[in-house]
Design brief:
homodimer, five-stranded antiparallel sheet
Chain lengths: 172, 172
Amino acid sequence: MDKVSQSYLLDKTMGLNENNPSQITISGVIFKHIQEIPVKGGPVLHMIKSSDPDFLGFGEVYFSLVEPHAVKAWKRHTKQTQQFAVPHGCISVVLYDDRKDSPTKGQLAKYLLGRPEHYALLRIPPLVWYGFGSNCKDVAVLANCVDIPHVPHESERLPLDSSLIPFSWSKE
Amino acid sequence: MDKVSQSYLLDKTMGLNENNPSQITISGVIFKHIQEIPVKGGPVLHMIKSSDPDFLGFGEVYFSLVEPHAVKAWKRHTKQTQQFAVPHGCISVVLYDDRKDSPTKGQLAKYLLGRPEHYALLRIPPLVWYGFGSNCKDVAVLANCVDIPHVPHESERLPLDSSLIPFSWSKE
């Protein structure tokens, strides 16, 4: 994928996030705005309920803190589904689909997560590569609620600058 | 409970948090330090796994943001167990036990939650009153992972300055 088409896709997905969050850019990925309830003293932010129609199961909930302008990439899981929300700070998540039988093989997608405009849940299916970086001056809190417990060797990693993924974090 | 005994209990529980977190001050309450894993770009903070020996079940995970020096109090649930962790900012949680058959009826307890010294999980059983306030200059993120989904009218509230609970938030 050359730079032009990469930019086109990123611009397209950025637009989707802001204007049409229910559209799927990579097969199996779900991006949906979730509720923020105004409360005196600070809002309540929904994330995941067992009664959600699309609830997958609960394996673990944990947090990944991201220092300003830091990047954590690349990783994918073979079995576990990732579900991200960012209650504090702001993060860009980049996804890359190289699943051989995927209808969206070769697609890159980028999502902004963070309050108040982009308080949303991003679901990343197994075998889709993901990485994320902080966009703002404060530390970001990425909450991840996964559907099955952590299993050693169930995930794979690539270095930040891997040539296998047509995206450059250094240009972010 | 007079001011002297209230202070004594609060001092005692503050000491417990810092020095002996496994001790229980109110029957059914669990306070335990949870793992923070150093990672380049920002640490990973554990919260709850379905494989934890004391896992209760998963109902919902959500966030309550607490503005600097704001207080949210008082509330208790009749069925749901609350499980708090604070991945960003710092919070004081005050508990009050007026369960008629509790061995710790009448006890107040206070816990500090927040990184790095007090990154911990606080489990609050049904029918124990709780309130929390931010202690620091930045907004705090309180994550709550409850064992059963939200049910309307399953919780009760008292005003911040209720005389039924022998604790004054205005002195905090």
